[in-house]
Amino acid sequence: MDKNIQEFLERVSSAKNIVIMGHKNPDGDSICSVLALAHLIELNYGVQPLCVYDGNISDSLDYIPHRGRIKYFERVDMTMPVDMAIVMDYGNPAHIGGPQPFVDNAKFVVEIDHHKNDNTIAQLCLNDDTAAATAVIVYNIIRAGNLKYDSIVSDLLALAILTDTGNFKYSRNGDALRIMADLVDGGVNIRNLIELMNNKQRKAVLLEARTTSNAEFFYHGRLALATVCKKDYKYLDGRGELILSLLGQIKGVEFVVLLKEQKTEQIGISIRSRRKPINEIAVALGGGGHEKAAGAVVRDNLENVKTRVLELFKGE
Ligand SMILES: [Mn+2]
């Protein structure tokens, strides 16, 4: 067994208080990996980890198994003793947000992540930036440790993989597909899982349609840019993945940018590319991410951020 996984499982078996978290505004991979690992630890070691998050969770994730188990950080006792904090799918220490005190107070910190990150925070890292989702690493832990798992774990891992790979569009190797094949053989029903996520508020879908139809196009139609203003931001589903995906389907569009006015002078930026890597552009804006899907948060007004982003795409 990989010696990091072995050490991780040994430490889990002797920990009494475990807190697990993902990144702020957790996406499908983040939340499902957290819940799957918590359930696995409970099944195999009899300890019930506390799962926490900061930000918002998409309505489309409301019916995932054990959704109620992950608590908003302000609703839990932040001063509790923590033997082990596990940070999953977080990418960058700035993305931890509200649950940070759990990491600061923990006797031992573990990270399980598939983002490229030179700024690790843990004493033990189970990171693999070739994994298509953090859930892939969780599955590898199950296999390496020969852990017991059930249909809840299987469904959560499958959901994490489906959402993070955009239904397998973004996987760079065959691992996610092989794992999904095993999960389906074990009883996972992909169609039911996708149907379970069709659960958006009407306002969210209408906002997606409106934002998409108001998009602007630059650089001979190669860059599509859409904007969500502050008064609409609260209706946005997750990161606005559907808007990004629709604009990315337009012939000739190579890059898609979604600017989200989260609050006054705070703009969330999501960037997608069909071919060329764009993570350096996200880094230039103070963010990061994957080669073809990255983002940042910039503290400035919408107009200035838009100008800056357009400038960065000049020559791309
Ligand atoms: Mn992920």
Question: Can you walk me through this structure?
Answer:
The chain is built from twelve helices and twelve strands. By secondary structure, it is of the alpha/beta class. It has two domains: 3-196, inorganic pyrophosphatase (n-terminal core), CATH 3.90.1640.10; 202-313, Roll (Diaminopimelate Epimerase, Chain A, domain 1). Helix 2 (28-45) runs parallel beside helix 4 (134-145), helix 2 (28-45) runs antiparallel to helix 5 and helix 8 packs parallel to helix 10 (241-247). The relative contact order is 0.11. The structure holds manganese (II) ion. The site of manganese (II) ion has 6 residues, from loops.
Chain-wise SSE layout:
Layout: H1 3-14, E1 18-21, H2 28-45, E2 50-53, E3 70-72, E4 84-88, H3 100-105, E5 108-113, E6 124-127, H4 134-145, H5 151-164, H6 175-185, H7 190-196, H8 202-213, E7 216-218, E8 223-228, H9 230-233, H10 241-247, E9 255-263, E10 266-273, H11 279-284, E11 288-289, E12 293-298, H12 302-313
Parallel strand pairs: 1-2, 1-4, 2-3, 4-5, 5-6, 8-9
Antiparallel strand pairs: 7-8, 9-10, 10-12, 11-12
Helix pairs in contact: 2-4, 2-5, 4-5, 8-10
Manganese (II) ion is lined by residues 29, 89, 114, 133-134, 164.
What percent of residues adopt helix (DSSP H or I)? 25-40%
Any idea how many domains?
2
CATH topology title of the largest domain: inorganic pyrophosphatase (n-terminal core)
Rg (CA only):
19 Å
Order of helices and strands: HEHEEEHEEHHHHHEEHHEEHEEH
Distance between the termini: 44 Å
Percent strand: 15-25%
The distinct bound ligands, ions and cofactors come out as: manganese (II) ion
In terms of per-residue confidence, which ranges show pLDDT below 50 for 5 or more consecutive residues? none
Classified by CATH, the class of the largest domain is Alpha Beta
Task: Report the mean per-residue pLDDT as an integer.
Answer: 96
- Return the structural class: alpha/beta
